[in-house]
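Notes from the 1:1 (GR / supervisor)

We went over the backlog. Supervisor wanted to see one worked example end to end before approving the batch request, so GR pasted a single chain during the call. The sequence is below; no edits were made to it. Supervisor asked that the structure be written out right there so they could see what the output format looks like.
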Amino acid sequence: GSTLRSNSSAGEGPVVVITGGTKGIGLGLARALLGRGARVVIAARGRASVEEACAGLADAAAPGRVAGFPCDVSRHEDVQALWEQSVARFGRVDIWVNNAGTTNVQLDFVDLDPGDLAAVVATNLTGVAHGTHVAARGMRAQGHGAIYNMEGFGSDGSRQPGMALYGSTKAALRYLTQSVAAEMARTPVLVCRLSPGVVVTELLVKVYREGDPAKWRRARWLFRFIADPVEPVAAWLADAVLRNRRTGVRLAYMTVPRAIGRVFLPRYHRRDLFAGQLPASG
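Structure output shown during the call:
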């Protein structure tokens, strides 16, 4: 299969672009990669949020190793501009992470607002298609690179009430990624999936805060064993991405054996990952 060739000269880390890089797992991944010597470009829709996140990351990194640009991933021209700005800044792009994602409140599909339908598909599917397309073309031309698409609930075909829309975009993302990986198998471009598992982010909290309290009580118990804060997940993903040399792979932080193992460890029964963010019942 394909291999990722490092074109880094001495003292220069790989160049990584992360969409949805101003909060949650995207920001955590940016921070973890900077800590491992990478040069990082973050992107999100709002200019102010990009500038604020960049300033915070720059404080923690060597000067000149972080950049940020506003980008609406639902617009192909925005994503193309992000590629060009990143190359202008750092000379190339070694790794591209399609992380930008949004979700709907946990309501049955029939009860969703029509605006939610458009917004979730535009970011989670159209946005990932744009990012994969732009990065694949750019990397094929430069002769190396790796693309990572971020899985979520539904990628494995799992179903749950309230997740029809979000889950369908993540199931489609898996199909898209595997298909493009197969098409590009004889090129020097890797196309892979990242599976962070359940990560405690604003996105996750929003889903349950605005949804059905009974669903939250059930989920909260399960999350004690399968969910994690951003930092350890981001650190694991950063190491996995920097190490990987194979195309078509799924790099998964939370595996079934790991989750089952936690059920037997008392400290996980006592965890509260959502203190102060959501009702404590259950």
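Supervisor's comment: The CA atoms of residues 153 and 262 lie 20 Å apart.
Batch request approved.
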